[in-house]
Amino acid sequence: MDVLLDLLDPKWWLGMLGAFATIGVIAIVFAETGLLVGFFLPGDSLLVTAGIFSTAAAAHGFGIAPLSLPALLVFAPIAAIAGAQFGHFLGARFGRKLFDKPDSRLFKREHVDKAEFYFEKFGPAKAVVAARFMPIVRTFMNPVAGVLEMDARRFFVWNALGGVVWVEALLLLGYFLGSKVEGIDKYILPGVFVVILLSIIPIVREVLKSRKAAGLEPKGRHHAPR
């Protein structure tokens, strides 16, 4: 349980990365969006926290050097776009064989199914952008788009739009909070759970709607025996 809490706590990641925190955040953004095994890495919460600790007051209160906000604003979106594009390439290159593996701690078929559900429900462009704000779905949407043969150039356009909006918005939100709220570092872990909860609400809602719709479907008619 302690290990799980550490993995969910962006402060733990930044403390572990130390002087390389800025580079580490950029690398984690790439891995979380581009590598299937990266779905467990913090995304939204890490970006907000990186923005918070790019302010001198918050960083010094935590005992680390401030992260470089200009570097994050430039290179984190590039990492998010490159990671997603790599995921799309893997999906287009290997097809469904990429997901042809048994469930394990690092892979669940339901993650792929959720990404494919949103892809079909919203359409390719809207799904690629919206998935940026959905943990886990964000990781699997990119290879699913490749598997479902979304054109690479079209994917790049919507991938770039979603990546820039997602990264910049969360970094700047964190920077604003870090510069305005005194002692903000004390509230980061509770905030992480709030972010996770808000992020999974759309997923839970769609799952419940799908189950309800399936329950309302008329069952096959039974023919009376002759």
Task: Characterise this structure.
With 226 residues, the protein is an all-alpha fold. It is built from eleven helices and no strands. Helix 3 (21-34) runs parallel beside helix 6.
Mean pLDDT: 81
The number of E-state strands comes to 0
Please report the distance between the alpha carbons of the first and last residues.
Answer: 62 Å
Order of SSEs: HHHHHHHHHHH
Q: Pairing-aware structural class of the strands and helices? A: mainly alpha
Count of helical regions: 11
Largest sheet: none
**Integer-rounded radius of gyration:** 20 Å
How much beta, percentage-wise?
under 5%
Helix content: over 70%
Principal-axes geometry comes out as globular
| Spans where pLDDT lies below 50 across 5 or more residues | 220-226
Feature tags:
mainly alpha; disordered C terminus; 71% helix; single chain; 0% strand; 226 residues
Secondary structure: elements and pairs:
Layout: H1 2-8, H2 10-17, H3 21-34, H4 44-52, H5 56-62, H6 69-94, H7 109-122, H8 124-130, H9 137-147, H10 152-180, H11 188-216
Helix pairs in contact: 2-3, 2-4, 3-6, 4-10, 6-9, 6-10, 7-8, 7-9, 8-9, 8-10
